[in-house]
Amino acid sequence: MNRRNFFKIAAPAALSPLMLNGSPLKMFTNQRLYKMLACQGVNDRALVMIQLGGGNDGLNTLIPIDQHAIYKNIRPNIGLNDTGTGAFVNLDNTLPIADQVGIQPVMTGLQDLYNAGKGNIIQATGYPNQNRSHFKATDLWFTGGDTSPLNFNKTTGWVGRFLDYSYPGSLGNPTTDMPDPLGIQLGDSSPAIGFNSFTGSTAINLTKQDVSGFYSTVSELGILPPSLIPNTDMGLELQYIVDTQESVSVYSQRISAVFNAGNNLGTYPDTDLANQLQSIARLISGGSKTKVFLAKIGGFDTHNNQVDFTDPSVGQHALLLQELFDAIKAFQDDLTLLGLADRVMTVTFSEFGRKAVENGNYGTDHGNLAPMFLVGNAVVPGITGTNVDLSNLDGSLLQGLQNDYRQVFSTLLQDWLGGSDDVMTAAHFDTFVGQKLPIIDNAAIVDPSCYMSNFLPIELVYFQAKLVEGQEVALEWQTSSEFNNDYFEVQRSENGVDFTTLFIERARGGYNITTTYTAVDPLPILGTGYYRLKQVDIDKKFKLSDTVAVNMGRNVEDLIKNIRIYPNPAKYDVNLVFTMKEKATLSLEIYDMEGHTLRSERINASVGFNKLNYDIQNLPKGINLFHLYNKALGFNHTMKVQVL
Given this model, what pLDDT does residue 230 score? Predict the structure, then answer.
């Protein structure tokens, strides 16, 4: 059920109380249920991205009808004619003439989708000063970057950042709420950087895999995990590898299960892209909750023989566009027959467009601006933007960027998938949240109350430290829910500033599960000791709890006695002696009479008699001050030593 239909049903129901087993539920008690129902369609949505590898020629994909004479002048050999055999087709003659575009005669799939109100064409997309290297330009589109120094070398992808932050703890960790991989890639055996997050790849690559038998294939690759994993740093890393292996095995079983449970009701062309989209439709129909799918069609690097020299409406580029839109049309028809068309949005992109001016080989070279295509039941049909001005070129390059590609993806992530503002910040798209495009139907735009928002790594109920029988400190903390949580460090300090780790406790909580942890400090700090909890995520991010103080209540005068320095005066060395009732860490600082620190050190004092020898030959002649202290104990003792 889509959101607009739900509210058509829900509106009359709102006039009467919600009933459960014949009893009315008060409004405040059913808000969570109401939100769950209202947002249910949002949770089921998916985004399908189609990469046009090589750099699609936007100017022969959408021909500016009002500038056809200029177009044919800069493309005399590869430009489509406006009349006769092989002439372009006017996509929509009801638009203002400045917005009208011609399409290749073979692009019937696009024409049908557009006429059915299921397509939006986004003109002149890209980013300022576009890079025209295939590899770097592709990386920039996938990472949400551009050619500015700040955004040029991102190492994670915007899809990965979005998914990892929206579903914390789900990466490589199938759960009841998210049993499927967050992303699935097809059409390219090289993993796309777009799915990379700070914690790893958020996608499973099914390229060239037998999806139906994926579980059997992965199972044959498995190895037995070690029987004993040590409680060390190496053990933590080893456990991560074991967990990853286990999750891949679970994912493979789930992927095969949903694929075999699904089906296709539509008819697809026998092409590589159509096969990819057919698999995606079958996975979704089988119950897959994967949020982002990536498919790919290559071959758009049309330097040579982009068109047939006898007819510019046929040739390599025309065949690619036919394969693209025939596959998308078949996919959309199949989703409609399966009753899934309200759940899926499809978007195309390419790393760059081509130059406006043709080259001498019946082709085009690397350029900049190109259109993106958005297909789905929930699109605002039509064209976003207008034709680029061909009379105002930068050499042979198009000018007039109209839509930054990050505006398109920001709109899809928030208005279609429901990413909250903090999720958009994590995706590095916060700058573009205020620049979203009107490409999603208002009735389908996710209400902010339904936004996905990052969960806290843990929900800490309390952390406490209590003195037990004056001898040891009992530590206890409780969590009500945990995501992406790796372990806890219990830390202790003598002064409330400098903390050291007492011990590490592995996380064992889960979603909506109350978990209580206990520990003991058998040798507390004399006087006041300070404790805090450090919670560490799987990706090594951490948070600190509030600090809790525990006072042992000991008499400092009874703990440290008989303090003296001899000989005094002295020329070569002195001895510092004292007796301790219990172990403690003391600090010693030596000053001159002007207050300059000459030396400082920590003393691990033992029970009983303590004697330390100090060479004083490098100290200034005259009176020097020896300051022995422990702030946590409230102990301070200063002695004058005369150096001869």
Answer: 59
